[in-house]
Amino acid sequence: MEVNPALYLQQGLLGPPHATATALANPTVSIASGVVIGTTLPTTSVAAVPGVANAYLGIPFAKSPPRRFSAPEDHEPWSEPLYAQALTPACPQAVSPNRGSLDSFLDSDAASILPVDEDCLYLNIYAPQDASPSNLKAVLFWIYGGDLNGGAASEPLYNGTSLAVNGDVIVVTINYRINIFGFSNSPEIPIAERNAGFLDQRFALNWVQQNIEQFGGDREKVTIFGESAGGYSVKQLLAIPPSPRPYRAAIMESQQTKLPGNGALNFQKVLDHFNCADIDCLRAVNASDITAFLVQEPTSPLLFPPVADNATFVPDIRDAVRTGSFADVPIIIGTNKDELGPLVFLIMGMAESKGLSLAEALGYALYKLGAPILDILGIISDLASLVDGDLDWPVLSRMMTDIAFTCPSGAIANLTATSTSTWRYRYSASLFPQPSFEGQDVYHGAEIPVVFGTYPRDKETVQMVDLSQYMQQVWTTFAKNPQGGPGWPRVGTGDGPGLADIGGEYNSTGERPIDCWVTDYWCDALLPIAEKLNLAW
After folding, report:
1. How far apart are CA 453 and CA 431, in angstroms?
2. Tell me, what CATH number does 306's domain have?
3. Which of 54, 177, 189, 286 could be stapled to 181 by a disulfide with Cβ–Cβ 3.0 to 4.6 Å?
4. Per-residue pLDDT tens over the stretch 305-314
5. Residue 228 annotated in active site
């Protein structure tokens, strides 16, 4: 397994394999698998509590490399100390090298330059230096986003030192398999094992239950949180909770509905391209050749959605809430103000390059992203009718953000609030403006560096620092006492404000409760349109 030192040295996350400090000078933990020797790292942001974090980087939570396309297996114990002092490679990425393509707004730019290897089933632990088995801390367990196509725990955005130190919690970040490697859709794989990526997440959660107390984490106080596809993964863990349940609370940042796609057809396309008759043949193909084929057409990458197995994935989690199988744990759920502004900007560029109207380009994009072709014209007509046919960029951006993110999250919050404590937010802080997306710069993922405290230090502002410390305090206080809530009214507690506006114009470094109609005024009209897209909830 190779690691690119240059990428991580600049983040302060990788030193020589055997640094000059002795093993005794580094944080050392003994678990059932063997001895783990970590390192210490300075925080990435202005710390509310000055200090450094203990970091254990690259601990295997399953056998790695895994058998391609198959379920994870237990890792064998190690006889020599494991030097957990360097981030490990990302799992194979299906991220187009053309960053102007339609999929770029969902994929992480950083993921396209990270070291990649199928030997990737590792996790990272960031802990306050006083954490120990006799001084246990609450645990935040992070699942990254990337549309189940890209992403990695080693992305600099997910450095957990600031969140761990400022919030006095343990932060765990994990890798899991994605795209065809995590969701092959192969009919040759038993249906209970086809969502290998979701199984990886559950395997890592089980590892935390077995081992986190040795690192100073309380196994009874685990909060799962994730963004985008990570929030979607959290939602599935709530809909089909493992038994015994390995978490007690959840935070979903920008969880979304997903277009269903046709994974089985795409898997067959991959077999045909490599002249393979079966999955064993495809297991012998170089991983980089496979991922290169997946993204060779940048406007229509081959997508591999999860398979309904009733073990790790259900197409509509609302049924789980209604039947009572949804986990009864406190929940925070929220979205960003301009989630899909960048996507609509890319659609505009495509319209100009192909001589299409914005509506025609939207239809083309929906088709390429897997929307049912027979419904697309009706969907475009329905959207246009809401604004008298005037589908300009800001209007379309708001509509698409509401269809994919705002309205489904609001509907889920209203539904879960009938049975469990639920809090909702909208993130509105414009901290990282992009000239190309002027007026639409609270985009997908904009809150991540604020939550993790991984914003650029050379560009930080007073608002950035203060808002980051506020959000870290909210997230970590919730992890310590979920029933106490984040500090604003629960969903469904009356006729007053139904969600918190975070970083908005009336409180740029905190939150202000607002009425749901501010965000949801189109939802009654848009949710039926979303149903026509056959979206997976």
Report:
1. 13
2. 3.40.50.1820
3. 177
4. 999 998 999 9
5. yes
